[in-house]
Each structure stands twice: as C-alpha cells, then as structure tokens.
C-alpha cells in the first residue's frame, strides 16, 4: 500500500524560508467507518541529536509500502524529523538540539496537557457511568478536542504565540485522536535500548521485546507521551474513585534507542522489530506469515523512573576509564576514575568513584572531559 503524504508548513524563518513537517499516512480506508480500526501515531527526532528513530521510520515506511491494504486494520501515521529546529542545530560537529535556545525550554517539556485545564473531571465521569467504554472515549475525546481548539486557535490571533506553543499545537493536532502514540528518542549521550511506559501498561510494554522497561511513576504532563496519555489516566482514576474500574485502550510510549548523533543498526533493528510486534499484538498489522522472533518478554527488567540516579562529577577533570554501558554493579563497586588537574603546583591526582547502591549502568556521558557537577553516568537502582 502507498501512503498519503502530507506536507505541513511549521515555521517561517527570518530568511523567508519555511520549515515543514511531513506526515506519511498509511490508511486502510475499509477500516474507517462504524467500527474503525486503531490510529497509531509514531514520530522521531523531537530532540535534535536523537536521530535513530528516523531510520526506524524509514524502515517502517519501506515495510508498510510493501504490504497489502488488508494487512493493515486502521491507520499508521509516521512523522520523521518532527522537530526541524532541533534537527538542524549545530555547535561545530555537535548536535545539541535538546532545547529551544531562544525560549530556554526543553523541546520535550512544552506540551499541552488537558488534565491541567480547569475541567470538572469527576462530574464528567459521573455523567458517563452508564455508558460503554467506546462511547465514553468518544465523549471525552470531544471534550479534549474542544479544550485544544480554544488554546490552539490563538495561533491565528494578532498577538501570535511563542514558537514552542505553535510547535506543540502542530504536533499534538496530529495525534490527539490517536489510540497509540510512540515517540522515538535515544539517549543524547550513550544509552541502552529501552521503553518508557505508564502505570498499568506493563503487559503491553513487553510487546516491544526490549530488555528494559522504565515505569514513569513520576510525571507532570509536559513531555509528549505524558501530555497524550495523562488525561486518559486521570479519567481512569476519576472512574476508580466512583467505584468503577476501567482501562481505556489508549497507550503512549517513548522508545529510547541507543546513542545521540548515531544510528546504531542494532538499536534501529530492535526498534523496528518491537514496533512491528506491538502492532501485530494490537491487531493493527494483520499479516499471518510475519515472522517475529520468540519473545523474551518474561526476561524484561522493569524499573521505576524514580530509581534513575545521575552520577555527576565530584571534581572537574578527565574521565580516564569507566564501566561499560549495561554493567550491573553492587553498592561499593567501582564506576569510574577521573584525572583531576590543579593549579596549585601539585601533581595531578586520580579519583575513583564507586556506586552508592546496586544498579544497572544505562547512560554514559558522551564527553569524557567534565566540569564539576556535570553528568558522568546514569544508574538504574535495582
Ligand atoms: Zn529525547
């Protein structure tokens, strides 16, 4: 099947040039109607240096272009290079791209969260108690869309909006009505491959066939995945407080695939495979002879995001050696050594740093020269 390709103007630059988004929409038209299929939204490169997701989307475009309409039930929207501002930013060889420098904001902490609007969720839940889940979902989505329209329509006002707001409304307008959202990132340093998931979605997280899953047990709704799912989790909680336990088939995932400024084949392949398997399990891809390797999901390691511990340089200096990515350490085990120089007429010294707790090394700084207080490595405390 061939995608519908839509090019969406995003921003006019001072030079007059226009930055665009481009969406590849694979849609089985037969699955739109009374009993529609699911809508999947996948984007990549929201942080400028985190490029591996673009290669994942390229492979997905290639794969989906070679299946038949009947192999897809629903629609899949793919947006590679979803942040052209971040993608194109350079500091010599390096691609910082994590912040909107002009506004001083992290590109992935700017999104609109309906759950933060002044909206009486409990009253809404109360009014929906007798409806089936599909109807509740439709009614709630209408509320979200109406809230979104009120805010986003200011794009066309005379006063205009700061670019991070224009940007967030553009991206969120593409996925507000999606069932599943997948945001493809990587470490902006050197990182392992893992998936961030939300409470009560552990089983589905296993479908990505990755070795590690990090539960977002603390989140404020400003990140892309959070902004999408938080209103639905809030509604589930509102129902629970009324004695009704429901779970909407609405999911948001952030896949972290490898390292910054690099496209590692292994990370890309894992991402493609995991997404394909997820879509098969969700019934979006219906390909009888699709071969997905045996799942190792029972071996997947789950850790809460509050267990992420950053080790920052206790002195300025040069990291001489360090544990390898993926190492499991015990409290007291060696993590890294740093050469610290001085301007006191003395010989340089070596400082060794050890783990404060048991853990898995999942993130390493890309720069081995560090000022005091800079990130050296990330440990998932076990
Ligand atoms: Zn990122």
Helices, strands, pairings?
Blueprint (H helix, E strand, L loop, with lengths): L3 E9 L5 E10 L10 E7 L7 H14 L8 E6 L4 H5 L10 E2 L4 E2 L14 H7 L5 H20 L10 H13 L4 E6 L4 E2 L1 E5 L4 H4 L6 E4 L8 H18 L9 E7 L7 H17 L19 E4 L3 E5 L4 E6 L5 E2 L4 E7 L8 E6 L4 E6 L4 E2 L4 E7 L1
Parallel strand pairs: 3-4, 3-7, 7-11, 9-10, 10-12
Antiparallel strand pairs: 1-2, 2-4, 5-6, 8-18, 9-11, 13-20, 14-16, 14-19, 15-18, 16-17, 18-20
Ligands present = zinc ion
- Ranges where pLDDT stays below 50 over 5 or more residues in a row are none
CATH overall fold name of the largest domain: Aminopeptidase
Q: What do we call the CATH homologous superfamily of the largest domain?
A: Zn peptidases
The rough form would be described as: globular
| Gap between N and C termini | 45 Å
Mean pLDDT: 96
């Amino acid at each position: 099947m061939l995608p519908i390709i839509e090019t969406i103007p995003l921003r006019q630059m001072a030079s007059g040039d226009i930055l665009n988004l481009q969406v590849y929409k694979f849609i089985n038209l037969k699955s739109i109607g009374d009993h529609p299929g699911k809508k999947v939204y996948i984007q990549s490169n929201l942080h400028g240096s985190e490029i591996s997701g673009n290669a994942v989307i390229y492979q997905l475009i290639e794969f989906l272009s070679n299946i038949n309409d009947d192999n897809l039930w629903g629609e899949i929207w793919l947006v590679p290079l979803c942040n052209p501002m971040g993608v194109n930013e350079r500091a010599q060889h390096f691609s910082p791209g994590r912040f909107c420098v002009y506004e001083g904001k992290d590109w992935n902490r700017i999104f609109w969260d309906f759950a933060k609007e002044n909206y009486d969720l409990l009253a809404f839940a109360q009014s929906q108690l007798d409806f089936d889940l599909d109807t509740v979902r439709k009614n709630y989505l209408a509320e979200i869309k109406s809230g979104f329209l009120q805010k986003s329509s200011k794009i066309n006002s005379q006063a205009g909006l700061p670019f991070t707001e224009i940007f967030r409304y553009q991206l969120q307008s593409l996925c507000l009505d999606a069932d599943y959202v997948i945001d493809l990132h990587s470490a902006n340093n050197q990182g392992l491959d893992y998936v961030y998931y939300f409470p009560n979605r552990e089983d589905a997280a296993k479908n990505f066939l990755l070795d590690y899953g990090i539960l977002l047990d603390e989140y404020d709704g400003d990140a892309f995945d959070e902004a999408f799912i938080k209103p639905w989790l809030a509604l589930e909680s509102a129902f629970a407080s009324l004695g009704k336990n429901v779970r909407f088939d609405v999911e948001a995932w952030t896949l972290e695939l490898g390292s910054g400024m690099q496209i590692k084949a292994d990370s890309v392949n894992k991402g493609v495979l995991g997404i394909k398997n997820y879509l098969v399990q969700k019934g979006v891809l219906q390909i009888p002879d699709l071969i997905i390797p045996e799942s190792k999901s029972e071996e997947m390691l789950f850790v809460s995001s509050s267990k992420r511990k950053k080790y920052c340089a206790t002195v300025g200096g040069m990291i001489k050696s360090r544990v390898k990515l993926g190492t499991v350490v015990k409290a007291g085990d060696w993590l890294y050594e740093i050469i610290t120089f001085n301007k006191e007429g003395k010989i340089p010294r070596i400082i060794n740093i050890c783990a404060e707790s048991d853990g898995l090394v999942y993130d390493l700084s890309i720069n081995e020269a560090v000022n005091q207080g800079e990130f050296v490595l990330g440990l998932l405390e076990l």
